[in-house]
Amino acid sequence: MSKQNSKIVYSTDPNWKAGVGEAKPAKNIRQGTVYLRRESKGRGGKTVTIVEGLVGDLKQWKKDLQKLCGSGGTVKGEMVEIQGDHRQRIADFLGKKNIKSKFAGG
Questions:
Q1: CB of 83 within 8 A of CB of 103?
Q2: Radius of gyration of the chain measured on its C-alpha atoms
Q3: Mind listing the pLDDT tens digit for each residue in 33-82?
Q4: Is 53 left (phi over 0), alpha (psi -120 to 50) or beta?
Q5: What pLDDT, on the 0 to 100 scale, is given for residue 106?
Q6: Does any domain span residue 82?
Q7: Domains held by the chain: number
Q8: In 3-state terms, what secondary structure has residue 41?
Q9: What single DSSP character describes residue 71?
Q10: 51 with 86: CB under 8 angstroms?
Q11: CA–CA separation, 92 and 99 (whole Å)
Q12: What is the CATH number of the domain that holds 80?
């Protein structure tokens, strides 16, 4: 049994077909406002820049932002963390790509 059908245990519908009507809705791919914030809580005093609201492949965004800032980073959930305070540099980079960005927090 494939993983796609593994949740169906029993069906009384004689016309049931695997995969029909189970399609997931497509994500909205329109780029909205990207929020940039600086955070150091829980990191031993080290500062990170958190980028939220990016659309697309977050791993590729992380790679591009790391190269731009010359520092490390990671993807956690729906946000990208870049080591250090690079908010202005990232905002300028996103502006060149016609993506709106806002500073959030302090």
A1: no
A2: 20
A3: 999 999 988 888 899 999 999 988 999 999 999 999 999 999 999 999 99
A4: left
A5: 64
A6: yes
A7: 1
A8: coil
A9: S
A10: no
A11: 10
A12: 3.30.780.10
